[in-house]
Write a structure and sequence with these properties.
Oligomer: single chain
Strand order of the largest sheet: 6-5-4-10-9-8-7
Shape: globular
Distance between the termini: 69 Å
Structural class: alpha+beta
Number of domains: 4
Strand content: 25-35%
Number of helices: 14
Radius of gyration: 28 Å
Length: 484
């Protein structure tokens, strides 16, 4: 009788990751917030000595927790699954089958690049309830990160000596630095300088009083000084948005390598994201209000089982709308021109947009007659008038269309999003009708898919068109959906 084969041993990450986690206080962040109140309760005062002691103590605590975390962490990429073991007191063993893996991202933050390390994120549609649907292997050498990425995507362990020939690359897209000028029109990039300023003020506020700078606020009594201050703040906001976009998207390049799409980007943190083309079911074109003024857009892939698709599934982070549409059509061809929704949908959009203004106007009419508060009446009228173009814009954004292999739906005003999906992506349909929609003979039909947000809606469609749209936009089984 042959002895049982020994169980394969897990791999360890590089010991250098202990230094990285010590410097970033990764593990200690969970402990420090609980320690500081205890120190404060013991009566320790401020001062330079206390500050230095606290820094040294937290650093030593970070070193200890980082070393223990490294010692108890291991990973194994087998021919059928990826296994990650972690934990000191409470041990956790997570197994992710290879056929549940949806994509791999290899990123190299600044400190990792100093030590020649990378972090590998494996997107898996196998997360437990309340658990993040990704497996992270943090702190492996660059060569090991590339090997692990290739192994899990090809669903087999690939030894370096048995590696296949590198497939030929085909470039799908490249970021043009001139597109950074679109960044001030994107809300997420405008939030970057605001968050940085907020973090700076919070850091200064946490310092002991003797270390806080004694700064006086600017004198805004002079109108010109106030105007200059506003202009300077706007310029800094614009510059911060451009710099933030450059840091995230620097040297963005999208290529096709074999059966995968590979996106590489980032200035401080280089990210290498790989998605299997066979799992791509469509794409979304996102256009914010400011972006529509300059005909710019963002493009993301809809991948089955992929979480955080807005970042990991990004195919074009920012660029001209024509570039985004051309790139999307290389993956999934969008149908013909969008079909508009009936006039009843326009009336409904306008009524919903002006409802708040009408209520304020009515309240203003009552208070104006009773107390002479004419300003509330004026505010209500202004809100109602301004809401009309908003309602018209929401109606203009509505649309749907079907094609031989795909369908598309579009909605949204502040952020307009058009989703193009393959017919085979649909796993079900949901039709909703409120009381007012039934009166207007309208309905909202939602295509349930296993990618992206999980469902994409065509709002306020003519109720009589729902069954035909569902049958044309999915497999033959949808023909059983009858109009009622």
């Amino acid at each position: 009788m042959n002895p049982a084969a020994p169980a394969p041993q897990g791999r360890r990450t590089s010991p250098l990751v202990v230094l990285v986690h010590t410097a970033t206080f990764k593990q200690a962040r969970q402990v420090v917030p609980a320690v500081i109140p205890i120190l404060a309760a013991t009566g320790f005062g401020g001062g330079t000595t206390m500050l230095i002691s606290l820094v040294v103590g937290v650093t030593l605590l970070s070193l200890l927790t980082a070393a223990l975390s490294w010692w108890r962490f291991s990973y194994l990429d087998g021919p059928t699954a990826v296994v990650v073991t972690r934990g000191l007191v409470s041990r956790s063993v997570r197994t992710v089958p290879n056929d549940r893996i949806r994509g791999v991202e290899v990123e190299a933050p600044v400190l990792h690049r100093v030590f020649g390390l990378v972090r590998v994120r494996i997107d898996a549609a196998a997360g437990a309830a309340g658990e993040n649907e990704e497996v992270v292997v943090d702190g492996v050498p660059r060569a090991e990160g590339d090997r692990l990425r290739a192994a899990v995507l090809t669903h087999r362990a690939t030894a370096p000596e048995a590696a296949e020939e590198e497939p030929v690359e085909e470039e799908f897209g490249r970021f043009d630095n001139r597109w950074l000028l679109y960044a001030p029109l994107v809300g997420s990039y405008l939030a970057v300088p605001l968050a940085a300023v907020g973090a700076l003020f919070r850091l200064v506020d946490e310092l002991p009083r003797q270390f806080q700078p004694d700064l006086e606020g600017p004198d805004v009594s002079d109108g010109r000084a106030a105007a200059l201050l506003v202009v300077a703040a706007l310029l800094l906001l614009v510059l911060g948005a451009v710099v933030g976009a450059a840091i995230v998207n620097w040297r963005f390049r999208l290529t096709r390598r074999g059966g995968s799409l590979v996106a590489v980007r980032g200035l401080l943190t280089r990210r290498h994201t790989e998605l299997e083309i066979d799992r791509i079911r469509g794409w979304t074109l996102s256009e914010g209000l400011g972006m529509r003024w300059v005909r710019a857009a963002r493009l993301s892939a809809l991948v089955t089982g992929l979480g955080d698709a807005t970042r990991r599934g990004q195919l074009l982070p920012l660029g001209p709308r024509t570039e985004a549409v051309t790139l999307g059509r290389r993956l999934v061809t969008d149908p013909a021109e969008l079909i508009g929704h009936p006039p009843a949908a326009r009336r409904r959009r306008i009524l919903r947009a002006t409802a708040a203004g009408v209520l304020v106007t009515l309240a203003g009419a009552v208070t104006s007659a009773a107390f002479g508060w004419w300003w509330l009446l004026a505010a209500g009228i202004a809100l109602t008038v301004l809401a009309v173009p908003v309602g018209l814009g929401r109606y203009a954004a509505l649309g749907h269309a079907t094609g031989p292999d795909a369908f598309t739906v579009r909605s949204g005003w502040l952020v307009r999003e058009q989703a193009v999906l393959q017919r085979r992506a649909v796993v079900g349909w949901q039709v909703r009708q409120s009381f007012f929609q039934r009166r207007a003979d309208l309905a909202t039909v939602i295509a349930c898919v296993g990618a992206g947000q999980g469902g994409y809606a065509s709002t306020d469609m003519a109720a009589g068109e729902v069954a035909a749209f569902a049958a044309a936009a999915s497999e033959p089984w949808a023909a059983t959906l009858s109009a009622r």
